[in-house]
Specification:
Elements: H1 2-21, H2 23-34, H3 42-58, H4 63-77, H5 83-104, H6 109-125, H7 127-148, H8 153-164, H9 174-189, H10 203-211
Helix pairs in contact: 2-3, 3-4, 4-5, 4-6, 5-6, 6-7, 6-8, 8-9, 9-10
């Protein structure tokens, strides 16, 4: 009996260690990706994005590894101006996000925010023809995120950026975006940002636009 207890404890210890192994490489790779310039560093960002894909394949039962692959692909999609290629990147991002949601067993505020970001990116590549469909998806997903966690700064950051790039005649522009950037800034300041399993992306970009 004592032997069985010891073996059981060892098995639990090994499983726990394996579950923790992904955090260090995931955090290191994500920081390397996220701290590169948002524009003009495509090759370097792609290298880090490829590493995120490998991490997700190695730890394919962890929702957060798939989440960061989806996030990196979505961020990089904004640099692709060819509509077909742009959509292909976002198709991959949506698949990874769906994998993350499936592993979670539900959507949380972070998955809704990322879904909104994907919709925003699809809209942005062809706004004249896509605003009606993807604008609604964007709004609905942000509202769903807000109902789960009204203090998620990324939700306000995305709303701010969307407003920033919307013509003033349609309720957009810098002045109308400012309150959202301010709200996000305060909420970002309250985040510790020391646990990769609790997404904390967006602060650097929000600071950049806030200064604008």
């Amino acid at each position: 009996m004592k032997t069985l207890i010891v073996m059981g404890a060892m098995a639990l210890s090994v499983l726990g260690a394996n579950a923790q192994d992904f955090k260090a490489p995931l955090a290191k790779t994500w920081v390397a990706f996220d701290t590169l310039p948002m524009m003009g560093s495509g090759d370097a960002r792609q290298q880090q994005a490829n590493k995120l894909v490998l991490i997700a394949k190695k730890w394919d039962k962890e929702w957060i590894t798939h989440f960061y692959v989806a996030l990196s692909k979505t961020m990089m999609s904004y640099e692709e101006k060819d509509v077909t290629k742009h959509d292909a990147v976002l198709d991959d991002a949506e698949k990874e996000l769906q994998d993350a949601v499936s592993l979670l067993g539900k959507n949380n505020d972070e998955t809704y925010v990322l879904a909104a970001m994907i919709a925003n990116s699809r809209l942005g590549v062809d706004p004249m023809n896509r605003w009606q469909k993807y604008g609604k998806i964007f709004t609905d997903d942000l509202q769903a995120a807000k109902e789960i966690n009204p203090n998620n700064p990324r939700m306000y950051y995305l709303k701010a950026v969307s407003t920033f790039f919307t013509p003033a005649a349609f309720g957009g522009g810098k002045k109308n975006a400012l309150p959202y950037f301010e709200k996000a800034d305060g909420l970002f300041a309250a985040e510790k940002g020391d646990d990769v399993t609790k997404p904390y992306w967006g602060k650097r970009a929000n600071t950049y636009f806030y200064a604008e």
